[in-house]
Amino acid sequence: MSDLKVFPRVTVPQLIRSKREGRKIVGLTAYDAVFAALEEEAGVDFLLVGDSAGNVIAGHSTTIPMTMDAMLFLTRCVSRGTSRVLVIADMPFGSFQVSVEDTVGNAVRFLKEGGAQAVKMEGAGYLIPTIRRLVDVGIPVMGHLGLTPQRINIFGSYDVQAKTREEAETLMDDAKALQDAGCFAIVLEKIPSSLAARVTEALSIPTIGIGSGPHCDGQILVSYDLLGVFDKFKPKFIRHYMDGAKLIRGAVSSWVEDVREGRYPTAAESYDSTEDENAPKRRSGTPTDQAR
Questions:
Q1: Domains of the chain by residue range
Q2: Mean pLDDT in the chain?
Q3: Residue 163's pLDDT is what?
Q4: First and final CA of the chain: distance in angstroms?
Q5: 21 has pLDDT over 80
Q6: Cα–Cα distance between 292 and 286 in angstroms, integer?
């Protein structure tokens, strides 16, 4: 029998309990099975299949073009690559700015077809009845306030949000409304640290910060930012834990040079006509030794 232990996925109640116990929650974005598996092995609590894929995967200047089909494909990839983390699917622009029942139908697809355990939605206000309905039918919802990238055409920039007293109070009211509607956590993106601390103190559900200071109950980053793979610009709150772009360029450049100079592949990296990689490996020792 294998001694491999199978751990159940992190659950919504576990994240809420983490806030009560003062344990910081850690999340990252993921868009494919390989990276998702590596991030899970590194110990994150949840993976967000973010519509930030519109920027770092699809090459768009905003997240607006991402579709349900695209996000479902990415969510399936991440779900297949993981077994322990909570997988949260970002609902793309246009998938929840519709009727309550159409939104429920779209969210259901992320759980049934995508293999996610929860969805994330940007905003509050008119969405409150929709969030209540989603929770009522058994779909956990993560909220998202502050800089909500799907509203870039309203904001006009990616600047810090809720800087005035009036805007701060509106955000506080929205956070409480999201909690009352049944959200299990709220992402606070790019708001003043002092406001994030106030919201975190006022809520019984976790706050997950991104560019909102150290006082949130947890943190999330875009994985490509964390790894330094996406290096076109670097906001103040991003810390590169490796110079991924430089390492990747260097590795590919070395391979290109090796191919052009005839150093790759070598004889050891080539096959002859007698090899079969799928054949069972012969055990060492004589047949008599193997039988003993």
A1: 12-226, 249-291
A2: 94
A3: 97
A4: 22
A5: yes
A6: 10
**Helix 68-80, helix 100-112: angle, nearest 10:** 30
Distance CA 142, CA 232 (A): 29
Question: Considering the entire predicted model, what is its pTM?
Answer: 0.92
Residue 213 confidence (pLDDT): 98
Per the structure block, which two tokens stand in for 274? 């007698």
Catalytic residue IDs: 189
pLDDT digits (tens, 9 = 90+) for 162-190: 999 999 999 999 999 999 999 999 999 99
| Nearest residue to 69 (alpha-carbon basis) of 88, 94, 87, 46 | 94
pLDDT category at 284 given cuts 50, 70, 90 is low
Query: Among all chains, which residue has been given the structure tokens 């103040």?
Result: 236
CATH number of 12-226: 3.20.20.60
pLDDT in tens, 128-168: 999 999 999 999 999 999 999 999 999 999 999 999 999 99
- Name the percent of the chain lying above pLDDT 90: 89
The residues, any chain, with a CB within 8 Å of residue 125's CB and separated by 6 or more, are 174, 177
